[in-house]
Structures are given as C-alpha cells and as structure tokens.
Amino acid sequence: MFAQPVWLLYLFTAFIIAVSANGNRYQANWKSLDARPLPTWYDESKFGIFVHWGVFSVPAFGSEWFWWHWQGQNPPDPKCVAYMIENYPPGFTYPEFAPEFHAQFFDPDKWADIFEASGAKYVVLTSKHHEGFTTWPSSYSWNWNSVDDGPHRDLVGDLAEAVRNRSLHYGLYNSLYEWFNPLYLADKKNNFTTQDFVLKKLLPELTDLVLRYKPELIWSDGDWEAPDTYWNSTEFLAWLYNDSPVKDVVVTNDRWGAGCYCKHGGYYNCADKYSPGELPGHKWEKCQSVDTQSWGYRKNIQLSELMDLPSIIQDLVQTVAMGGNYLLNVGPTSDGMIPTVFEERLRDVGGWLAVNGEAIYASKPWRVQTENATVPVWYTSNSKESSVFAVFFTKPHGYTFKLYEPVTTDTTVVTLLGNSGPLRWSPLQPAGLVILLPEIEFSSGQAWTLKLDWVK
C-alpha cells in the first residue's frame, strides 16, 4: 500500500546527492539549502491568497482545529462538546463529516476570477491539514481524500488548472503531522526514534503531490512536535531543489521541524500573523486571515470579527514596506462557496491595487520604512530606486503635505497615484519637501500614495 521499497530508493538517492554534491547541487543540510537564492517571482508578487478548506469546513465551528479541540486536547473544549451534543446524534465521529463535504457549488473558474480580481499574484490551497484529509486523490490516504469521499473530485487539480489559466502562481499548504494517524502516534510514543509515518505516509505522499501538480510554493506546517531529522526535511528539500520538476521555481517556507522557523528554509513565516519590529535581513511573509478568529470557515462568524478593508490595506502596505509578502486567507464553505463578505474584501483589495499597485508589486524597502510626517507614512521604492512611494492612511486636513526623509533633486517629480498631472512642491532644509495636494478623493481603503521620482 505504501510502496516502501520505492521510497527507500528515493532516500538512498537523496543520500547520494548529499555525499556527491558539486557546486551546482544542494546538499541535504541547512547550510547548503539555506544558501539557495529565492526565485524572483515570489518577492515580486508581494500579495497572495491563502485558502483553508477541508472536512473541518463541515462542522464549521470554532476553527479548523475543531477535531482536536473536541477530541484531542485534554480536557476537551466544552463549547465544541456542547456543539456536538446539540447538533449530532450520540456516537457521531469526526470522519462522518467527510460525506457532508459535498463541494457541490465549487466552481474553480469563479474562484480563480475572484483571486485574479483581488490583485493577488499567487494562490496557496490546503492540500492536507492536520486532520489528514487530502483534497486530492492520494493513494496514501485511502478513503480519507476528496475523490474517495466527500466531493468525489480532485480539488487540488481542478483549482490548479483554473489558477494557472489566469497566469497566477499556484502553491500548496501541507501539514507534516496528522493528529490521529496511528503511524504518527506510534512514532510519537517512541519519542520520534522511529519514522514509520514519515517513510510510509508523509514523504511518499508529499513527493507524489509535487510530481503530480508541480506547485511553485510549498507551505509546510505541523512541524513543531518533532525535529527536522525526524521529518527528513533536508533530504526532501535537497530533492526538491535539485531534481524535482519545480526545482528552479519552487519556493518554500520555514516550518520543517521544531526550532526551524525564522531560522531555516526558503522564506520565513515565523509565527502566524507575524510582523517584525524592524526591517528583517531575510525574506519573510505575513499570513493573515480575513476572519480574525479562524482560518477555516465558521458558521457563527460575526461581522465584528472580520478585518475591514482599511485594516487589510494598512496591513498589506506595512508588510511590503518591511520587505515581506502578504498572504491573505479566506475559508470557503463545505459546499464550495467563498462567502460573499470574503469575496467583497478581496475584490475591494484589487480595486485599491489597481490604483496603487505600483507602490506594491516588485517594490523593495526604502532606506526608511516609515516616518511621522504631516500624517504617518510608509515608504516603498521601485527596484531601481528612481521612484519612492509614500503611502498614508489618514486624510490630511489641509492642502499641504510635508515629508522629512526624502532628499529632493532638480529633477524631482511628485504625483498622487490615481490623479493626473504632477503636483507642485518646494524643498525643505536640510531634507524633505512640502507638497501642494489636490482635493483628495475618497478611497474605500482609506489609503493614498504619493510617488516621488528622482529623490534620494
């Protein structure tokens, strides 16, 4: 069932790679793997969409961790216990939710249209969360996948085609561990001195996922209970970077074993919803959810628990100004719909980016990330630093706007994105300038961008 001999051959091959690697190949150790340059598409994209979807979308209560909160943690969450008592018959088990994961209204083209309209440049779908259910026909997850059960369709493959037809990059989230997998629990009981789960389930399944769908991003998770040596992370990444069909374009994050995050991998996620206090020296990404209480869909969601558009835009801008990418999550329903309020948020972000995207896409941090000027502003710059962008979230009371950090030149030109024609300005001493603003038009995102060409 697990094709163990094939996987052992793969491990032997990875070992040979590590031993006989030359300057053009990556060895199965962190020093070598961490030296791999990040493919440029990722940094230039800046904005992506995260999608948490699985069997947890059926109970849709609390969060995507419902199964664990109900039957894994000790003591169980009384709210989850009460929810089951009030809504399901005695003895109902979590796997019985899977047949109700119908996805009957899932239209990958409509999803891809929404993602494209959001201005996102990449999409990351959950291929397997901690519950172990795969949203693709994994032979290593027999009868616990979206083809054998539930939707009876390949959700990963269907969305891959639709997303790529719109020239968006496609990535996959994958949990290393599974809460209740007997193989994993046996390895855990043995203090991870055995690797039956890794060799018979995780790595052959993850490898097949790469070979089958060729994701350009692998968003690893569920790593924290065991070291990277248990997960064989470096061996897998050496194969991924050297010999996989996506070796030249694939991007990975930093969740490959206890103690790895913010230290090893492609780019850094660090903690969920992480924001650094100062400009990091390594590429990073902030994952954020429109629903502030959950990544998966919740039936009892409240409007007050959602991020509004100005909050999302401000979070996006500040993340990009600090050199990060912004991965914004939505949780579809079990029947395959992106809730209207989530769709509205995504389309509105796209509307703001249609005007202000020049300050976001393919930008890089400026020498100063933020300052308290006439109102607080956040800076980005283009790749050649011939243009600097100052984004502000508070509408000025008057018609003059002072910036103190830019140093002007005789060729400096100032414009307001979305407004035609250059603006009048005068230099300040020893640095800075005062700008005469036009009437600031309403922005649903409550954020506006000044473009300064030829400043220092």
UniProtKB/TrEMBL annotation:
Functional note:
Alpha-L-fucosidase is responsible for hydrolyzing the alpha-1,6-linked fucose joined to the reducing-end N-acetylglucosamine of the carbohydrate moieties of glycoproteins.
Q: Known EC number(s)?
A: 3.2.1.51
Keyword Signal set for record: yes
Q: Which family does it belong to?
A: Belongs to the glycosyl hydrolase 29 family.
Q: Where is this site: May be important for catalysis?
A: 287
Assembly and binders: Homotetramer.
Taxonomically, which superkingdom? Eukaryota
**Record protein name field:** Alpha-L-fucosidase
Record flagged with keyword Chloroplast: no
Q: What is its main location?
A: other
Gene behind this chain? Answer: FUCA1
Instruction: State a GO cellular component annotated for this protein.
Output: lysosome
Glycoside hydrolase family 29 N-terminal domain: which residues? 20-358
